[in-house]
Design goal:
heterotrimer; A mainly alpha (156); B mainly alpha (91); C mainly alpha (151); A: 156 residues; mainly alpha; disordered C terminus; C: 151 residues; 70% helix; 0% strand
Chain lengths: 156, 91, 151
């Protein structure tokens, strides 16, 4: 347990901030259609929230929240949502990823396209967030060396 | 200080500077790139065609949707590759 | 009066990117440490991203996000607002993701190399590889050929 991880201030602030960072990530993903944002950016912010939690509370605690199996499932789910949206358009007689072909709202292909782009962004965000978390857990030290990170001088 | 590397870097930099003289000035709206029909088409028609007011998102998810699918596959594959490379010690 | 200084000033962004790119290039080819090579590659990529994004910039232009249309009232925006070029932004969004992916895979490979050879230095790794697997070394192969012919 390093000194940074023991600090009450940092632990409390992280515990309070993580839900808000996740909420902001979801806002950025959904806002990709109407403003600055998108799946990649929001996914990275979501992954950063979980990584922040795992850095302060320990890798084991982080893996309890987002397990390796969940990571893998989420990463493939996002990609499946994207490819599935494309195939859905083929199913309704359009081309691959031709969103306007899906008759979700009659006579307004632009609006259907907007909602399906949102769906695609959610798929991208899921994959990116899961991959970022999985990258962090992969490069983190193995379980036996958990909490033996070096104490940095003047860290407190 | 590697002298050969420095020599290569300086020569490449000079070549790039020589080539860069023909590039348009910073912030110039009269470039062929901006006045091209394609760019103007995207700015004018992306909202009516895809219903998204962010033109970059419309380009990314609609006009270049296939490319973005490949991009998502790239990041997924990178995640899986790192997993395969580093998780061997668990068994 | 268009002197050389005017040209230098009007295109100053390109010279900065050339300098940044060459810093990354030098780190890639001259440094022996593998992590430093990856850092050099990242600096190189960042220079290219900045180059593309600066090509997209228009003086007085705003971000390529159209104002929200509420209900049926259409805002006349296309004529009086200048938008920066959205196409390079989109290209660079793709390139950033690919850059992150390649960096992740490169760092994972470096971790494996470090576990295997105990060093990040290129020369040490090559020397260890030669001693472990002499068939990979052209010099060692030549030496063994010479020894055989001498016998």
């Amino acid at each position: 347990m390093s000194r940074i991880q023991e600090s009450v201030i940092i632990r409390t602030v992280v515990r309070i901030m993580v839900p808000f960072i996740e909420l902001f990530a979801l806002y950025v993903i959904i806002h990709g259609a109407g403003g600055p944002g998108g799946g990649f950016q929001g996914g990275v912010i979501f992954g950063a929230a979980i990584i922040l939690y795992a850095m302060i509370y320990g890798i084991a605690e982080g893996k309890k929240r987002v397990s390796d199996a969940l990571d893998r499932i989420l990463a493939s789910t996002g990609l499946t949502i994207y490819a599935g949206t494309g195939l859905l358009c083929i199913l309704f007689g359009g081309m691959f990823l031709q969103y306007g072909a899906v008759p979700l709202i009659p006579d307004d292909p632009a609006k259907v396209s907007k909602y399906l782009i949102d769906l695609v962004e959610i798929g991208i965000g899921t994959t990116v967030a899961a991959v970022m978390i999985s990258l962090f857990f992969d490069v983190s030290p193995p379980e036996s060396e958990e909490g033996e990170l070096p104490d940095y001088e003047g860290a407190d | 200080m590697n002298k050969l590397a420095l020599f290569v870097v300086v020569i490449t930099g000079l070549m790039l500077i020589y080539a860069g003289q023909d590039l348009p000035p910073f912030g110039d709206p009269d470039t062929a790139m901006y006045q091209h029909n394609m760019t103007q088409y995207f700015i004018e028609n992306s909202e009516s065609e895809s219903g998204v007011s962010n033109i970059v998102t419309a380009l990314l998810a609609n006009y270049r949707g296939y490319d973005t699918l490949g991009e998502t596959t790239v990041i997924f594959t990178a995640g899986m590759a790192v997993m395969l490379l580093l998780r061997r010690r668990e068994r | 009066m268009t002197g050389i200084l005017d040209v230098v000033y009007a295109e100053y962004n390109y010279w900065i990117y050339v300098a940044l790119m060459m810093i990354g290039f030098y780190a890639m080819i001259a440094k022996k440490n593998l992590i430093k090579k990856v850092i050099g590659a990242n600096i190189f990529q960042t220079a290219i991203f900045l180059f593309y994004v600066s090509l997209a910039d228009i003086t007085g232009g705003t971000a390529p996000i159209l104002p929200h249309v509420h209900g049926g009232e259409h805002v006349e925006h296309a004529a009086d607002v200048i938008y920066t070029n959205p196409v390079p932004h989109c290209l660079i969004l793709t390139a950033i993701v690919v850059s992150v992916s390649t960096t992740a895979v490169a760092l994972a490979l470096i971790i494996r190399i470090y576990n295997e050879y105990g060093s990040l230095d290129e020369d040490v790794i090559l020397a260890a590889r030669k001693s472990l697997q002499p068939e990979f070394s052209e010099y060692a192969r030549q030496k063994s050929v010479d020894e055989v012919s001498r016998q």
